[in-house]
């Protein structure tokens, strides 16, 4: 008898796990992917919380797309994101507290987890604020050509811990504008990089959301989730006649 009960329990457990796996697989296929392309700004002046917006002397901004990111939305407002950045440290910018003599190449790769604050504050339609955290790898080339008397900037390679915030503005249902600010802290004290690996990175991207038609239809039935639909809804409301403006039937 006990053997039969055990067999039934094992079969029931296996059945529930199969159902759960099927539902998770179906949900994973329906949840959206996001891909973005844009600019990144690196501030590596080593002044910590001073000169945060010293764009003229501290911000390194190449005039072409230098950032790509891929994101997968999971459950409960959580998503995971992979980011690759390229940048150039401009000549005469402040790098690590001193003016740089030559240009240097910059690469970074980050694996991040994001939390959609709409899960906490409530739905904000086309405005999606979030907080993010994760780890990354940063590589900065050395200054190869050095004049007599100049101090050569050495190559920097190391891991960093990232934390930051940002938001997405959805212009249409699938196209949006994403912005993000990250503080990156080098893990040099753990032997995983240099001591002066801390820097700030900002980004601005055009993002595209791959959403299934079923999910898109469900969202439309609830509320306008982009700026265009939201504007159309406001326009319809403003154009609709009020109670006093409605034509009274003839007596």
Short description:
This protein is of the alpha+beta class and 251 residues long.
User: How many individual β-strands?
Assistant: 11
Separation, N- and C-terminal Cα atoms: 84 Å
What is the CATH topology descriptor?
Answer: Porin
Structural domain tally? 1
The backbone outline, from C-alpha atoms, is elongated
Overall helicity: 10-25%
Q: Indicate the structural class.
A: alpha+beta
Number of helices: 5
In spatial order, strands of the major sheet run 1-3-4-7-8-9-10-11
Q: Mean pLDDT score, rounded? A: 76
Regarding quaternary structure, what we see is single chain
The major pleated sheet works out as: 8 strands, antiparallel, barrel
Secondary-structure element order, N to C? HEHEEEEEEHEEEEHH
Architecture, CATH level 2?
A: Beta Barrel
CATH structural class: Mainly Beta
Radius of gyration: 26 Å
Low-confidence stretches: 8-28
Describe this structure in words.
There is one protein chain. With 251 residues, the protein is an alpha+beta fold. The chain has one domain (26-239): Porin (Beta Barrel). It is 24% helix and 41% strand. The protein has helices spanning 2-30, 55-58, 118-121, 213-222, 227-239, and strands at 33-43, 59-60, 67-73, 78-89, 94-95, 98-99, 104-116, 127-140, 156-170, 175-186, 199-210. The strands form 2 sheets. Strands 1-3-4-7-8-9-10-11 form an 8-stranded antiparallel barrel. Strands 5-6 form a two-stranded antiparallel ribbon. Strand 3 (67-73) and strand 4 (78-89) form a beta hairpin. Mean pLDDT is 76; it is low at 8-28.
